[in-house]
């Protein structure tokens, strides 16, 4: 299967002309808060429509092509809404900057069974056929991408646990190695060597959002949850559910409805922290020592 790359432009102006026709210009630019990696804007166009723009330095243009590919594969499952991808680009004027243009998600009041619907749609995404997204393997993705601003390797693997070791924990531990003493490094090696004792293979591979915390969904104009900012790959669905629990958790209605649609494999609560170790290590590597005690607590929990 071929995965289309979004159209690419060398300026916002040429993007707007190509997307919306001659004479459409930016009437107003409003900076949005909330993202930690990129600058985000609501652009109001001369016809009063709004589009969403993210920008970053030209060196980080890869963030946006990766994000567009992630949104595209989620959209291909026809299970849960994502903003339509308009284009990516690199402006060549001045110092230049990379940009991504998306459909603007207009917020509406959440529907009454918001969390149940979100859970059922996410479970449907996790059940959708995922084989096309990983040529030459069952777990991984057809290209590498990013987790926040960190590199995320997605080399196809036949099995989930080796994938999680080789492409998730090991690279993060390597980057973070200076935070650990010799005894701790030996414990980490032991943990990685014995991951089969703690994790299980899934019943089937699932397309994952990959970075599913509460900042990465918005309520759209249908009153339902729309996924944004994915770090998509094919893995074990419980890794997505674990991340929803990392920074505060979603509503209990969400978990009850997910369980109804796609029952968790027995023992999930004992595996949750190991999945989230990946995200905590990534935060340690990106943002520094504040995350070290959480990382060490999880290592100790598994290596007794
Ligand atoms: P980052 O890549 O820096 O993490 P985010 O994707 O989290 O950025 O987006 C930054 C801000 O823009 C957040 O406040 C988010 O709610 C908002 N946002 C993201 N995508 C859209 C969209 N398509 N329409 C409207 N607002 C959006």
What are the SSEs and their pairings?
Blueprint (H helix, E strand, L loop, with lengths): L7 E2 L2 H9 L5 E7 L6 E7 L4 E7 L4 H16 L8 E7 L5 E7 L10 H14 L17 E3 L2 E3 L7 H16 L6 H12 L12 E3 L8 E3 L5 E3 L5 E3 L1 H8 L7 H10 L6 H20 L4 H11 L2
Parallel strand pairs: 1-5
Antiparallel strand pairs: 2-3, 3-4, 4-6, 5-6, 7-8, 9-12, 10-11
Helix pairs in contact: 3-7, 4-8, 6-8, 8-9
The structure holds adenosine-5'-diphosphate.
**Overall pLDDT confidence:** 95
Helix content: 25-40%
What is the terminal separation in angstroms? 46 Å
Tell me, what's the shape?
A: globular
Structural class call reads alpha+beta
The helix-strand sequence is EHEEEHEEHEEHHEEEEHHHH
Widest sheet: strand ordering: 1-5-6-4-3-2
What can you tell me about this protein's structure?
The protein is an alpha+beta fold and 304 residues long. Helix content is 38%, strand content 18%. The strands form four sheets. It has a six-stranded mixed beta sheet with strand order 1-5-6-4-3-2. A two-stranded antiparallel ribbon has the order 7-8. A two-stranded antiparallel ribbon has the order 9-12. Helix 3 packs parallel to helix 7, helix 4 packs parallel to helix 8 (268-287) and helix 8 (268-287) packs antiparallel against helix 9. The structure holds adenosine-5'-diphosphate.
Task: Write a brief caption for the model.
The chain is of the alpha+beta class and 304 residues long.
What are the salient characteristics of this protein?
304 residues; 6-stranded mixed β-sheet; globular; 12 strands; alpha+beta; two-stranded antiparallel ribbon; binds adenosine-5'-diphosphate; 38% helix
């Amino acid at each position: 299967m071929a995965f289309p790359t979004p159209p690419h432009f060398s300026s916002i102006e040429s993007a707007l002309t190509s997307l919306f026709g001659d004479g459409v210009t930016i009437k107003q630019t409003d900076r949005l808060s909330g993202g930690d990696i990129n600058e985000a804007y609501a652009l109001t166009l001369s016809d009063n429509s709004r589009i969403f723009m993210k920008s970053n330095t030209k060196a980080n243009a890869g963030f946006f092509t990766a994000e567009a590919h992630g949104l595209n594969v989620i959209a291909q499952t026809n299970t849960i809404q994502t903003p339509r991808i308009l284009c990516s680009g690199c402006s060549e004027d001045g110092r230049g900057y990379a940009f991504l243009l998306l459909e603007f998600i207009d917020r509406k009041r959440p529907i009454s069974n918001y969390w149940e619907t979100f859970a059922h749609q996410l479970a449907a995404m996790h059940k959708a056929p995922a084989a096309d997204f990983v040529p030459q393997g069952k777990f991984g993705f057809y290209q590498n991408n990013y987790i926040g601003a960190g590199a995320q390797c997605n080399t196809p693997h036949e099995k989930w646990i080796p994938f999680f070791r080789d492409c998730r924990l090991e690279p993060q531990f390597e980057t973070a190695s200076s935070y650990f003493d010799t005894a701790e490094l030996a414990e980490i090696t032991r943990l990685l060597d014995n991951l089969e004792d703690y994790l299980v293979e899934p019943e089937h591979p699932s397309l994952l959002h990959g970075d599913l915390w509460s900042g990465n969904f918005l309520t759209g104009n249908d009153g339902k949850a729309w996924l944004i900012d994915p770090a998509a790959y094919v893995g074990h669905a419980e890794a997505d559910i674990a991340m929803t629990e990392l920074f505060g958790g979603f509503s209990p209605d969400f978990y009850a409805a997910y369980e109804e649609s796609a029952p968790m494999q027995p023992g999930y609560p004992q595996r949750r922290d190991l999945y989230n170790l990946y995200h905590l290590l990534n935060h340690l590597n990106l943002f520094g020592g504040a995350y070290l005690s959480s990382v060490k607590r999880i290592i100790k929990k598994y290596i007794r």
